[in-house]
Design brief:
Blueprint (H helix, E strand, L loop, with lengths): L1 H5 L3 H29 L6 H4 L2 H18 L12 H24 L7 H36 L4 E6 L3 H12 L5 E7 L9 E2 L2 E5 L4 H7 L4 E4 L6 H10 L6 E4 L4 H7 L1 H4 L1 E2 L24 E5 L4 H12 L4 E6 L2 H14 L4 E6 L5 H11 L3 E4 L6 H6 L1 H22 L3 E7 L8 H18 L4 E7 L1 E2 L6 H10 L4 E3 L5 E2 L1 E2 L1 H14 L4 E4 L5 E2 H11 L10 E3 L20 E5 L2 E4 L8 H13 L3 H11 L19
Parallel strand pairs: 1-2, 1-5, 2-4, 5-6, 8-9, 8-11, 9-10, 11-12, 12-13, 13-18, 14-17, 15-20
Antiparallel strand pairs: 3-4, 6-7, 16-19, 18-22, 21-22
Length: 627
């Protein structure tokens, strides 16, 4: 320790020496003051003559205690509760050493009341000297922050450990403009208490009143993993207040490691899911060293599959897509990120059987993920032949090529719209599922279909569309006030694909996605998250159901209702075999699609998919106030 102190910079040694000098001066002054208080301002001569030697002994004991507890190495910027405890222990230790010294040196000790008074005065003064610079700095920072033109008045939801940590981090950081007015918490035992110098003002239900009273513009949610239902309730409470929301999305343990203020992030649509997100992180999927081919590799789902495969150790990933620009950009992103893997981009159309067979023969992939498809419901209604060529013929070509080469696994990305379909897109995806089952009957390859709900933030989904409309000032367009959908995140979708592919659960896997979500509610909450009020700043307009669209989606057909839970949130079903005469009906469908006869294509689809029927478009009121 001595050698370490010698090598310390001179300024640090000087500061630590000054701290010890202050501790000694505090001890002497506290003993003298205690004597004055004990004897009402007039110290008797017998005690005044003994005072110098008692002061010297006390100063030595106090300085020794400070060094033992390392109080001279004080951090004036980051002191906390544990440091305050150290001061208390140092005070008791110093007094104990003092009394021991008096006994061993056979000195005439001061009265017991003086010893107690000196302990209290010294401890209080030592704490004041150490904590006052930080308190003064925090006060000055708060005042300076509140005077800034860009100051953001905020309330913290949650007065627990995470909320206290968030407040302390915000007060210490100079990289933000938050001025915290106080807390709200549903635990009524905390109401009226002070947390980190800020009051607990009320419950979450009091937010509207408190926001107006304190002119708040930001709400900081400091309850990690707050249920989505509670988040939606908070948004609905504040729907007309034009607030911005931030949330701590991680556990308290992680906050302790990283700091709460740095983890604040905007509320996202994923936070509004009516269930806990399904996480597949850390699973041993045995992907390392494998070769995988992904069709539709440049799309939202396909590109994430490629990234996750590489992240899990795949040796080679062949990305196949007709979108050459998307492939080029994806390869540029993934190649430097995964330098030890082979990232290959191949421009190809899944409709072209010969091109696919050449690719499969060249690369001999072990695993195939077929994500290429036309998915936009309204566009496929007016181009049914194109839907058949891409979704049906494309699936047939990829599945046959995988089977011929002897791939170990084939995963078809399907949709809940394939269940009792009312759209051309849904009907073609159901036929694609039948194609996979037919090829599987004649192949040693393990074939599996993974059925999705709507994927949040994927290309062409409602979230990006709503955000564009909100950014443009509205209106936000919703087809029908009662349209409901199953929603899942891209991470959940890809996790389901990988788990289903390498878990070998069965021919059909589906993510349990909880309750259907009303799209109107989602639109309203996105408007609130943007800091604006629905129907005040951003109007909502109903356009009527689009051709092929239905109010509710389903996950299983009647024949698939018997399901089993195979892995937490994954459900597996025994897919029903293709109907009799399927091969001949499929050839007729593909021949008709090649001739681009839309009416004949629709008739052929109805013969293959008995549940497929067109539904009439429903015209609804044009704005929210009309319902």
């Amino acid at each position: 320790m001595f050698l370490a102190s010698i090598t310390q910079p001179p300024l640090i040694r000087l500061r630590r020496s000054l701290v010890l000098v202050f501790d000694g001066a505090i001890a002497g002054a506290s003993l003298w003051t205690s004597m004055l208080l004990r004897f009402e301002g007039q110290i008797p001569h017998t005690w005044s003559t003994r005072l110098p030697e008692l002061v010297l002994l006390l100063v030595a004991c106090r300085v020794s205690a400070s060094m033992i507890l390392r109080l001279h190495r004080w951090s004036f910027n980051f002191s906390g509760l544990t440091d305050g405890v150290r001061i208390g222990i140092s005070g008791l230790l110093g007094s104990g050493l003092f009394l021991l010294g008096v006994y061993l040196l056979r000195l005439s000790g001061p009265p017991r009341s003086v010893v107690v008074l000196e302990l209290l005065l010294s401890t209080a003064a030592m704490a004041f000297v150490r904590f006052s610079p930080r308190l003064a700095s925090l006060y000055r920072a708060d005042r300076a922050r509140s005077r800034r033109p860009e100051a953001l008045r905020a309330l913290i939801v949650g007065a627990g450990a995470a909320g206290d940590m968030l407040l302390r981090d915000l007060r210490q950081s100079h990289e933000h403009s938050y001025v915290v007015c106080g807390f709200v918490d549903d635990d009524r035992s905390r109401h009226g208490s002070i947390v980190g110098g800020k009051p607990v003002l009320g419950t979450v239900a009091d937010l509207p009143r408190l926001v107006k009273r304190h002119r708040v513009t930001r709400v900081l949610i400091a309850i990690p993993r707050l249920p989505a239902q509670r988040i939606r309730e908070i948004l609905n409470l504040c729907s007309d207040l034009k607030l911005q929301f931030k949330i701590l999305p991680v556990s308290f343990v992680y906050l302790q490691e990283r700091g709460a203020s740095s983890m604040l992030e905007d509320l996202s649509p994923e936070d509004l899911l009516p269930r806990e997100p399904v996480r597949f992180v850390g699973e041993d999927l045995q992907i390392a060293g494998r070769t995988a081919l992904v069709t539709g590799g440049a799309g939202s789902i396909g590109s994430e599959i490629c990234r996750q495969l590489l992240h899990s150790g795949a040796a080679k990933v062949i990305m196949v897509d007709i979108n050459e620009n998307g492939l080029y950009l994806l390869k540029r992103r993934l190649t430097p990120a995964f330098p030890d893997a082979a990232v290959i981009a191949e421009v190809a159309n899944v409709r072209e059987s010969k091109r696919l067979r050449n690719l499969f023969a060249r690369y001999e992939p072990q695993d195939v993920f077929h994500a290429a498809a036309h998915k936009q419901v309204p566009l496929m209604e007016i181009a049914p032949a194109e839907a058949v060529k891409n979704n049906v013929l494309g699936t047939l070509n990829v599945a046959q090529a995988a089977s011929e080469v002897g791939c170990e696994r084939f995963i078809l990305i399907s949709t809940d719209k394939a269940v009792r379909p009312t759209s051309v897109m849904g009907a073609t995806k159901q036929v694609a599922e039948m194609v996979v089952r037919r090829v599987a009957e004649r192949s040693d390859t393990h074939f599996c279909t993974v059925r999705f709900g709507n994927v949040l933030n994927s290309a062409g989904s409602v979230i990006p569309i709503f955000r564009e409309q909100i950014a443009a000032g509205g209106p936000v367009t919703v087809t029908h006030p009662e349209v409901r959908r199953y929603l899942m995140t891209i991470e959940e979708a890809v996790g389901l694909v990988l788990k289903s592919a390498y878990g070998d659960y069965g021919p059909l896997c589906i993510l349990e996605m909880g309750q259907l979500i009303r799209i109107l509610d989602l639109a309203r909450q996105l408007i609130i998250l943007s800091g604006r009020a629905p129907e005040v700043d951003i109007p909502i307009v109903f356009t009527g159901l689009r051709p092929g669209e239905k109010l509710y989606e389903e996950l299983f057909t009647d024949a698939e209702e018997k399901t089993q839970r195979v892995d937490e949130k994954i459900l597996a079903a025994d897919a029903s075999p293709p109907p009799g005469g399927f091969d001949e009906s499929l050839r007729d469908l593909l021949d008709i699609a090649a001739r681009d006869n839309s009416q004949a294509v629709l008739a052929a689809l109805r013969s293959l998919v008995p549940f497929f029927r067109e539904i009439p478009q429903v015209h609804e009121p044009t704005n929210l106030a009309a319902i």
